[in-house]
Amino acid sequence: MSDADDEKYIVFKRDEFFQWMGELSVSPRLMKAPLLREDALDHALPDAVVIRRQDLFASPALATYASCISMVAKTTKNGELQTVADYFQRQSELAADEGWKLPDV
């Protein structure tokens, strides 16, 4: 996994996404936007949680998560889990440099 250029997920704020989809729907070339919106909602991840690195509390939260994963990786000798732990540890380090604001809702 890479640091800041993850390719597994893409994240939007819900209201901005819907606004963007509404703008697409007025384009003559993209009249399928309402269908795209429904399809996007069908594929949304209901159990996803977003922690932004700019959040003041992101660094310790991500470091704790990384530590827990690393502990299990070491006790089970699971190298794939250690890769995941290393990824979240790196995100914690990036957040320590970027974290400057309180979380918003």
Please write out the topology.
Elements: H1 14-25, H2 33-42, H3 58-76, H4 79-98
Helix pairs in contact: 1-2, 3-4
Number of domains: 2
Residue windows where pLDDT falls under 50 for at least 5 positions: none
Number of strands: 0
Average per-residue pLDDT, rounded, comes to 84
Measure the end-to-end span.
28 Å
Radius of gyration in whole Å, from Cα? 18 Å
Helix and strand composition category:
mainly alpha
- Helical percentage: 55-70%
Describe the structure.
By secondary structure, the protein is mostly helical. The protein has 2 domains: 12-46; 49-105. The chain is built from 4 helices and no strands. The protein has helices at 14-25, 33-42, 58-76, 79-98. Helix 1 packs antiparallel against helix 2. The radius of gyration is 18 Å and the shape is extended. The mean pLDDT is 84.
Defining traits:
105 residues; mainly alpha; 2 domains
Q: Briefly, what is this?
A:
Helices cover 58% and strands 0% of the residues. The protein is an all-alpha fold and 105 residues long.
